[in-house]
Amino acid sequence: MIVAVLSALAEPTRLEALRCLADGSEHCVCELMRKLGATQSRMSRHMQVLKQAGLVVDRRDAQWVRYRINPDLSPPLLRLVAAALDRDLVAEAAA
């Protein structure tokens, strides 16, 4: 599992997508596309990789799929993601 997580975090677009999701809100692919300058198919593929690594969860909302950081990340994985994003997600999750 750690290899999948590290691999997912190693790609700049995925890392930036996680940075967007770190605000605690759900975001649809269309929002992430605009913020990151990616095509729909490319962004969807990146989100699928993050989902398979267990870093994000999704929720279908009509024709949109909304993503957020997985709230059930283990503390070590949460610290790893926080370090990759250079944010204190551990404290934010506790608040």
Walkthrough of the structure:
With 95 residues, the protein is α+β, with helices and mostly antiparallel strands. 59% of the residues lie in helices and 15% in strands. The chain has a three-stranded antiparallel beta sheet. Helix 1 runs antiparallel to helix 4 and helix 3 crosses helix 4 (40-52). The longest helix is centred in the middle third of the chain and has 13 residues, at 40-52. The radius of gyration is 12 Å and the shape is globular. The N and C termini lie far apart (27 Å). The model has no long low-confidence stretch (mean pLDDT 91).
Topology record:
Blueprint: H1 2-9, H2 12-21, E1 27-28, H3 29-36, H4 40-52, E2 56-61, E3 64-69, H5 75-85, H6 89-94
Antiparallel strand pairs: 1-3, 2-3
Helix pairs in contact: 1-4, 3-4
What's the SSE pattern?
HHEHHEEHH
Write down how many β-strands occur, each being a DSSP E stretch of 2 or more residues. Answer: 3
Please state roughly what percent of the residues sit in beta strands, choosing from under 5%, 5-15%, 15-25%, 25-35%, 35-45% or over 45%.
5-15%
The protein's oligomeric status is single chain
DSSP summary: helix tally:
6
**Proportion of residues in helical segments:** 55-70%
Strand order of the largest sheet: 1-3-2
Average predicted confidence as pLDDT: 91
Instruction: Report the end-to-end length measured between terminal Cα atoms.
Output: 27 Å
Contiguous runs where pLDDT drops below 50 for at least 5 residues: none
Described by the principal axes of the CA atoms, the overall outline is globular
Instruction: Please compute the radius of gyration using only Cα atoms.
Output: 12 Å
Instruction: Indicate the structural class.
Output: alpha+beta
Question: Sheet with the most strands?
Answer: 3 strands, antiparallel
